[in-house]
Amino acid sequence: MQTNDTALVVFSGGQDSTTCLAWALSRFNRVETLGFDYGQRHSIELECRTNVLARLREQYRDWSEKLGQDTLLTLNVFQQLGETALTHDVEIAMTQSGLPSTFVPGRNLVFMTLAGAQAYRRGLKHLVTGVCETDFSGYPDCRDDTMKALQVALNLGMETRLVIDTPLMRLTKAQTWRLARELGGQPLVDLILEHTHTCYKGERGHRHPWGHGCGVCPACELRSAGFELFLETE
Ligand code: ZN
Fold first, then answer.
1. What is the pLDDT of residues 49-84, one digit of tens each?
2. If you measure from the C-alpha of residue 122 to the centroid of ligand 1, how many angstroms do you get, rounded to a whole number?
3. DSSP code, position 94
4. Residue 98 near residue 91 (C-beta atoms within 8 A)
5. Coil, strand or helix at 204
6. How many domains does the structure of the chain reveal?
7. Of the candidates 22, 73, 52, which has an alpha carbon nearest to the alpha carbon of residue 197?
8. What's the 215 CA to ligand 1 centre distance in angstroms?
9. Is 145 a member of any domain?
10. How far is the CA of 93 from the centre of ligand 1 (A)?
């Protein structure tokens, strides 16, 4: 049975989806997580994922009681479809289409459809995703319009009433840090800094003030600029 206070969070182990998970845990009574192993070049993301979940359970007793099962789906179809900088060893750059080579066409559409199917089966009402159109790299599948259209399509196609929640849609990276602090205090900011993964190159490497990563890829640049602004605007 689907009740209003239940949610499925699309959780990758990055800064954004960890903040979304905290957001869902502070709002809903039963929260489950879903992740995808889609042949990412770097399995570090999947390691961070498990680690972040374990630490959230350990540090936040209230949330731990609400946090239900985690599911990891394996999808190797994106590699079969062709090369992107996230799944293959190609350079991270702008392509002729005006989108970065890290864009995996259809990825979020497929992820959200599978998340819808999982939510349906598990009786969960809300689908929570960390997509954002403020600081985003121009990914069309992160747009608010895309998510609204998907919500309609999923509900029509499954004869259900799922709600897609996108708590970060209008936030800058600095505001996302602020939201994390509102939800879980400084310990959550520290947990995200230390244990989440954002770097496109899969490097943990050096611990910068904003966390681990190569420091030069677009994802690291965005994360470091956002964190600096967060500190400056305290
Ligand atoms: Zn990086």
1. 999 999 999 999 999 999 999 999 998 887 777 766
2. 35
3. B
4. no
5. coil
6. 1
7. 52
8. 5
9. yes
10. 13
